[in-house]
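Quick start: read one record
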Amino acid sequence: MQQEIKTSRTARFTVFSILLLVMLLAACGVNKDKPSETSSITPQATNTESTETAAGSSETPSPSGTEQPKTRTVKDDLGRNVEIPVAPKRVIAGEFASELLAVGVTPIGAGDNSFKIIFTQKEMAGVEKIGDPPNAEKILELSPDLIIAPTVFQEIYPEPMEQLAKIAPIFYVSFDQDPIYDIFPKIADLVGKSTEAKQWIADYEKEAQTAREQVKTAIGDDTVTIFRVEKGRLRVYLNRNFAGYMLHSGLQVHPPEAVAAEIEKNKNGSAFEISLEKLPEYAADHMFIIVRGEGDDQGAFQEIEKSALWKNLPAVKNNKPHFLDTDKYYGSDIVTIRETMKEAVEMLTK
């Protein structure tokens, strides 16, 4: 009898051991296939290292498993530390709308100059105009989480900008720097699009290199300069707007010595005024001329055309003055630079 009981207990223990082993194996299989919830990390959460960016920004690392920071501190071109959203969604562009569009970000509002850029007018459809000077009431209605403005706004619109600072953080950008290699990366970093900016720049550099080779083959070491004629004023453009950057930094054509000396004084300068008598000193083998198509500016240019001084310029004698569309060449933004470069190549290589 005792032997039967012992045998029965042994059998039950054996069955229980087998069941326990099966359950343990099943549990191991589940754990292997399903990661622990407490150790899971999203792609966004992995980017917690302290970084220094083109805009002078830094983030503080967060302990593993804690909520990621919603803001970060960046240094603008006024040297101010500005706290901005890590991922701004509603951006106002006092200027620099083209730079935002180039990385796939459409501002919710923009200053008047942004709507004058011929090459981005379609993309600006639906963007609200904030006025010039910026209208604080209009901007308040738009509820921005970031405002990007040129430093000159603080100089010429101090009171409106003081009001805007109460609505959203303002990041100031100076025009006195390279538009493609300085301004553009800063703007892209603000909205988390540094990778897109690097790709845009890489594509631009390939286009620019091809364009330079074409122009070099066509005109060799000929000089090129840009003039704008207005009523009562004649200006020579340097290395920024109205094709200045596109020609001198993009295509890297040679300016006359007098113009090169002015560029040397101010690498990011816009323009300087000369008298009509000085025109031959600043003229070049190829001359880009900017004159509005109607009004007093056109009348002023017609007077210059009649002068012997104009007719004796080498570029005029050789039929090499090139007339630019004022509205098309107006901007100093990166999209205008890239697009007008294509047209300038056609003009210089004909």
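The chain has two domains: 71-192, 213-349.
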